[in-house]
Amino acid sequence: MTGKKYLIVGGAGEAGSSAIEFLKANEKDCHIIATTSSHSQIPGADTILHNVKADRQIVLRVKEELEGNRIEPKFDVLIYTPALGEVGYPVIESKPEAIEAALEFSYYPMLNLETTFSPKLSIGYSAFYWLPHTLAFYGTMGYVKKKMDEWAITKPDSRKIIRAGTFFSKSVRGISLVLQRTMKNTKDPDLLKLKEKYANSNQKFQDFFLDYAWKHEREFFSSPKFNSPYRATTRADLGRGLKNVLSNDAPIATVLGDWEWYEKSMPDLPEWFRK
Q: What is the dihedral of CA 201, 202, 204, 210, to 10 degrees?
């Protein structure tokens, strides 16, 4: 085997499956090892590690599955995709214990894998968690994604982040469902404004939520430097994000529809969020 060896944690999800598709199309001789928390199959993976959950036992389970498949526990690239935490309320209202629970799933397992296996490159995923409209509903995941950015920026030679715009996915569907329930009894001024806009939209909430996010992305990032109009991000754009982090020295590669750019520092955060 002459190609790179990739460990993709969460190979059945949107980010994981898009990474597999990109690598299969562009690195013909690579070996893809993908994990799943169940017994499910993962199209495109050369080796599947089953029943690997994003928790404190992840290193042990990966080692056990690798041994069972007679694979040496060494990787060139780690791609970590799992993300789960309380959402549907303002980031600033996140409780410390809820933030810690989100990190236990979305961040600490990645650190443990990185420390144990020492891949040449580790890759995670982030979002536009600091935009005003996102701060109103992203809850604990705002802190998770901030932590991910900081992680990459402190060691850019071996850590990378793919930041992508909002696209239709199970994750976005879940956020929209939680947010819709939260808005029924909210007293937060930003969510009350969102509630009023939805009431006047004549849309299903999920469609309204996506249009709302896309509108804010377009308004915030529109610039003469881009040679094409704003386009909503799709799942297919994630593969381009992976291509960009694999070919650029910057710690963060952003894809927003057809637009793309690189970042080497933290975004401009509110003072309360920087602390």
A: -30
